Protein backbone atom coordinates (compact mmCIF):
# COMPACT_ATOMS: atom_id res chain seq x y z
CA UNK A 1 0.00 0.00 0.00
CA UNK A 2 3.02 2.22 -0.43
CA UNK A 3 2.03 5.87 -0.77
CA UNK A 4 -1.67 5.07 -1.04
CA UNK A 5 -3.98 7.43 0.80
CA UNK A 6 -6.26 5.40 3.15
CA UNK A 7 -9.99 6.10 2.84
CA UNK A 8 -11.50 4.31 5.84
CA UNK A 9 -10.70 3.14 9.35
CA UNK A 10 -13.49 1.06 10.89
CA UNK A 11 -16.65 3.10 10.17
CA UNK A 12 -14.76 6.36 9.91
CA UNK A 13 -13.75 8.27 6.84
CA UNK A 14 -10.07 9.24 6.28
CA UNK A 15 -9.18 12.39 4.32
CA UNK A 16 -6.52 15.04 3.86
CA UNK A 17 -7.17 18.29 5.73
CA UNK A 18 -9.63 20.65 4.04
CA UNK A 19 -9.69 24.40 4.63
CA UNK A 20 -13.14 24.24 6.28
CA UNK A 21 -11.79 21.76 8.88
CA UNK A 22 -8.99 23.96 10.23
CA UNK A 23 -11.36 25.31 12.93
CA UNK A 24 -12.04 21.80 14.23
CA UNK A 25 -8.33 21.00 14.33
CA UNK A 26 -7.62 24.25 16.21
CA UNK A 27 -10.45 23.49 18.69
CA UNK A 28 -9.06 20.01 19.37
CA UNK A 29 -5.57 21.46 19.84
CA UNK A 30 -6.95 23.99 22.37
CA UNK A 31 -8.81 21.23 24.19
CA UNK A 32 -5.83 18.90 24.71
CA UNK A 33 -2.55 20.85 24.50
CA UNK A 34 -1.09 23.36 26.98
CA UNK A 35 0.54 25.14 24.00
CA UNK A 36 -1.90 24.68 21.10
CA UNK A 37 -1.27 25.85 17.54
CA UNK A 38 -3.58 28.70 16.59
CA UNK A 39 -5.98 28.65 13.61
CA UNK A 40 -3.54 30.88 11.72
CA UNK A 41 -0.52 28.68 12.46
CA UNK A 42 -2.44 25.61 11.26
CA UNK A 43 -3.63 27.50 8.17
CA UNK A 44 0.00 28.37 7.33
CA UNK A 45 0.97 24.70 7.63
CA UNK A 46 -2.09 23.72 5.55
CA UNK A 47 -0.87 25.97 2.74
CA UNK A 48 2.67 24.55 2.80
CA UNK A 49 3.48 21.88 0.21
CA UNK A 50 5.68 20.17 2.82
CA UNK A 51 2.82 19.52 5.24
CA UNK A 52 0.43 16.57 5.36
CA UNK A 53 -2.56 16.28 7.71
CA UNK A 54 -4.35 12.95 7.83
CA UNK A 55 -7.84 13.48 9.25
CA UNK A 56 -10.33 10.86 10.49
CA UNK A 57 -14.02 11.85 10.57
CA UNK A 58 -17.18 10.41 12.06
CA UNK A 59 -20.03 11.98 10.06
CA UNK A 60 -18.17 15.26 9.61
CA UNK A 61 -16.77 15.42 13.13
CA UNK A 62 -12.98 15.16 13.32
CA UNK A 63 -12.22 12.31 15.72
CA UNK A 64 -8.47 12.04 15.13
CA UNK A 65 -5.73 13.71 13.12
CA UNK A 66 -2.02 13.53 12.50
CA UNK A 67 -0.02 16.37 10.95
CA UNK A 68 3.61 16.25 9.88
CA UNK A 69 5.95 18.25 7.68
CA UNK A 70 8.76 16.86 5.60
CA UNK A 71 12.03 18.71 6.04
CA UNK A 72 14.85 17.10 4.08
CA UNK A 73 15.02 13.46 5.18
CA UNK A 74 12.78 13.88 8.24
CA UNK A 75 9.04 13.94 8.62
CA UNK A 76 8.67 16.18 11.65
CA UNK A 77 5.57 15.59 13.77
CA UNK A 78 3.35 18.65 14.21
CA UNK A 79 0.68 16.92 16.29
CA UNK A 80 -1.54 13.90 16.59
CA UNK A 81 -4.74 14.00 18.60
CA UNK A 82 -7.60 11.62 19.21
CA UNK A 83 -10.85 13.25 20.36
CA UNK A 84 -11.43 12.36 24.05
CA UNK A 85 -14.72 10.55 23.16
CA UNK A 86 -12.93 8.28 20.66
CA UNK A 87 -9.86 7.08 22.53
CA UNK A 88 -8.60 3.48 22.87
CA UNK A 89 -10.03 2.44 19.50
CA UNK A 90 -6.65 2.30 17.83
CA UNK A 91 -7.10 5.65 16.08
CA UNK A 92 -3.71 7.11 17.03
CA UNK A 93 -1.92 3.90 16.12
CA UNK A 94 -3.82 3.92 12.82
CA UNK A 95 -3.06 7.51 11.75
CA UNK A 96 0.59 7.29 12.70
CA UNK A 97 1.05 4.01 10.85
CA UNK A 98 -1.02 4.96 7.79
CA UNK A 99 1.01 8.15 7.38
CA UNK A 100 4.32 6.33 7.09
CA UNK A 101 4.11 5.49 3.34
CA UNK A 102 2.86 9.03 2.66
CA UNK A 103 5.93 10.47 4.41
CA UNK A 104 8.23 8.03 2.65
CA UNK A 105 6.79 9.03 -0.72
CA UNK A 106 7.71 12.64 0.05
CA UNK A 107 11.34 11.67 0.58
CA UNK A 108 11.42 11.19 4.36
CA UNK A 109 13.51 8.44 5.90
CA UNK A 110 12.07 8.76 9.42
CA UNK A 111 9.51 10.43 11.67
CA UNK A 112 10.92 12.74 14.32
CA UNK A 113 8.92 14.13 17.22
CA UNK A 114 8.98 15.54 20.72
CA UNK A 115 6.80 14.14 23.49
CA UNK A 116 6.37 15.58 26.98
CA UNK A 117 7.84 13.40 29.72
CA UNK A 118 4.39 13.35 31.37
CA UNK A 119 2.60 12.12 28.21
CA UNK A 120 2.44 8.41 29.07
CA UNK A 121 -0.48 7.65 26.68
CA UNK A 122 1.45 8.96 23.64
CA UNK A 123 4.64 7.20 24.69
CA UNK A 124 2.68 3.94 25.01
CA UNK A 125 1.10 4.34 21.58
CA UNK A 126 4.49 4.99 19.99
CA UNK A 127 6.03 2.02 21.75
CA UNK A 128 3.31 -0.29 20.39
CA UNK A 129 4.01 0.78 16.77
CA UNK A 130 7.80 0.64 16.73
CA UNK A 131 8.90 4.17 17.59
CA UNK A 132 11.90 4.73 19.89
CA UNK A 133 12.92 7.34 22.43
CA UNK A 134 16.37 8.42 21.25
CA UNK A 135 17.23 11.12 23.78
CA UNK A 136 15.79 13.83 26.05
CA UNK A 137 15.97 17.62 25.92
CA UNK A 138 15.43 19.36 29.28
CA UNK A 139 13.19 22.46 29.41
CA UNK A 140 12.11 21.94 25.80
CA UNK A 141 8.49 23.01 26.26
CA UNK A 142 7.16 26.43 27.25
CA UNK A 143 6.32 25.28 30.78
CA UNK A 144 9.87 23.98 31.29
CA UNK A 145 8.97 20.34 30.74
CA UNK A 146 11.52 17.89 29.35
CA UNK A 147 10.94 16.39 25.89
CA UNK A 148 11.53 12.82 24.89
CA UNK A 149 12.86 12.93 21.33
CA UNK A 150 11.13 10.10 19.50
CA UNK A 151 11.83 8.54 16.13
CA UNK A 152 10.52 5.93 13.81
CA UNK A 153 13.06 4.98 11.16
CA UNK A 154 11.32 3.65 8.05
CA UNK A 155 12.33 0.18 6.96
C1 LIG B 1 -2.12 9.98 23.01
C2 LIG B 1 -3.40 9.82 22.20
C3 LIG B 1 -3.18 10.41 20.81
C4 LIG B 1 -3.74 8.31 22.07
O1 LIG B 1 -4.85 8.18 21.20
P1 LIG B 1 -5.73 6.83 21.09
O2 LIG B 1 -6.43 6.90 19.78
O3 LIG B 1 -6.56 6.67 22.30
O4 LIG B 1 -4.60 5.68 21.07
P2 LIG B 1 -4.80 4.18 20.51
O5 LIG B 1 -6.19 3.73 20.75
O6 LIG B 1 -4.29 4.13 19.11
O7 LIG B 1 -3.82 3.38 21.45
C5 LIG B 1 -2.97 2.35 20.95
C6 LIG B 1 -2.30 1.67 22.15
O8 LIG B 1 -1.51 2.61 22.88
C7 LIG B 1 -1.64 2.37 24.30
N1 LIG B 1 -2.37 3.48 24.96
C8 LIG B 1 -3.09 4.48 24.36
N2 LIG B 1 -3.60 5.32 25.28
C9 LIG B 1 -3.18 4.85 26.49
C10 LIG B 1 -3.38 5.27 27.83
N3 LIG B 1 -4.12 6.36 28.13
N4 LIG B 1 -2.81 4.55 28.83
C11 LIG B 1 -2.07 3.45 28.55
N5 LIG B 1 -1.85 2.98 27.30
C12 LIG B 1 -2.40 3.68 26.29
C13 LIG B 1 -2.42 1.07 24.42
O9 LIG B 1 -1.48 0.01 24.35
C14 LIG B 1 -3.27 1.12 23.17
O10 LIG B 1 -3.73 -0.14 22.77
P3 LIG B 1 -5.00 -0.80 23.52
O11 LIG B 1 -6.08 0.24 23.62
O12 LIG B 1 -5.35 -1.96 22.62
O13 LIG B 1 -4.48 -1.24 24.87
C15 LIG B 1 -4.60 10.52 22.91
O14 LIG B 1 -4.63 10.12 24.25
C16 LIG B 1 -4.56 12.04 22.79
O15 LIG B 1 -5.10 12.61 21.85
N6 LIG B 1 -3.91 12.73 23.77
C17 LIG B 1 -3.83 14.18 23.78
C18 LIG B 1 -3.00 14.72 22.64
C19 LIG B 1 -1.56 14.22 22.68
O16 LIG B 1 -0.95 14.12 23.73
N7 LIG B 1 -1.00 13.94 21.49
C20 LIG B 1 0.36 13.44 21.36
C21 LIG B 1 1.38 14.50 21.38
S1 LIG B 1 1.50 15.34 19.82
From TrEMBL:
CDD domains: NAT_SF. It comes from the Bacteria. GO terms for molecular function: acyltransferase activity, transferring groups other than amino-acyl groups. Residues 12-155 form the N-acetyltransferase domain. The keyword RNA-binding does not apply. Keywords: Acyltransferase, Transferase. PROSITE patterns: GNAT. Coiled coil: none annotated. Pfam families: Acetyltransf_1. This is N-acetyltransferase.
